[in-house]
């Protein structure tokens, strides 16, 4: 498993590289009136309007600094496509061969503002450690991974925005 590591709220975090669409420089965002403080705004990315979350604020600290190494990590919030061949065969048999080709999975983009975005780390998925505490107000905090830079907590991207905020 390949992880992109970064800093947020002064700590090391990571995102599964398979969920990353692109890492872009920090750009000017259009603010959204009456949005929660962690929702920094929106911007246009290749014809799509993308909501952007400031991970510093989301994690209870100051907003991310506007530095050269501060980036917007564009992630796909949609659940990853199944890689199980047996599941794909069952789905194809029950719905016909043309349904899989006619229903491409649509991406659901989300931007995450993070600092010191720079390193990819390879981690064996079996070495990931379950978080010792489950925080109801932070369902996006996932398992822990030991990387060459220290222990990083995974951000579960599909849980960053509540369903009521996700478009």
UniProtKB/TrEMBL annotation:
Transmembrane segments: none
A biological process from GO: signal transduction
Pfam family, one: CheW
Stored InterPro entries: CheW (IPR039315), CheW-like_dom_sf (IPR036061), CheW-lke_dom (IPR002545)
Region described as Disordered: spans on this chain: 85-104
Gene Ontology CC annotations of this record: cytosol
Residue ranges of every copy of the CheW-like domain listed in the record: 1-166
Protein name: CheW-like domain-containing protein
Organism whose genome encodes this protein: Paludisphaera borealis
Lineage: Bacteria, Pseudomonadati, Planctomycetota, Planctomycetia, Isosphaerales
